[in-house]
Amino acid sequence: MLKVQNIVSVSDFRQDLSGWLEKVKDDNSVVLISNSKPTAILVDPDYFAYLEKYADGYYDAGDVAEAKRALANREDEEALPFDVNNYS
């Protein structure tokens, strides 16, 4: 599961846009809140590509294991260039 450690208000995000975007690169995600409610989640491009490719619904640990197996066996010649372990 994606671990979210960075939560920021929309107004604080605007004030330090480049700093928060750097945190997305470093920590994989940032949650934007407005009026104490989540309004958006920014994720790094590799994780987004993973979601588009493998998350066609809700998946559990067994499905993550299947994705790891498929990547390890190079069943997808366009395997994503990141470690799935970072996202399980």
Structural features, described:
With 88 residues, the protein is of the alpha+beta class. It has 2 domains: 7-43; 45-83, no CATH class. The chain has helices spanning 10-15, 17-27, 45-54, 61-72, and strands at residues 7-9, 29-34, 37-43. It has a 3-stranded mixed sheet with strand order 1-2-3. It is elongated. The termini are close together.
In short:
The chain has helices spanning 10-15, 17-27, 45-54, 61-72; strands at residues 7-9, 29-34, 37-43. With 88 residues, the protein is α+β, with helices and mostly antiparallel strands.
Task: State the helicity in percent bands.
Answer: 40-55%
Number of helices: 4
Strand order of the largest sheet: 1-2-3
Main sheet makeup: 3 strands, mixed
Shape: elongated
β-strand amount: 15-25%
Oligomeric description of these chains: single chain
Order of helices and strands: EHHEEHH
Uncertain ranges: none
Which structural class best describes the helix and strand composition?
alpha+beta
Number of strands: 3
Q: Roughly what is the average pLDDT, rounded to an integer? A: 75
Distance between the termini: 5 Å
* Overall tally of structural domains: 2
> What radius of gyration results from the CA coordinates?
15 Å
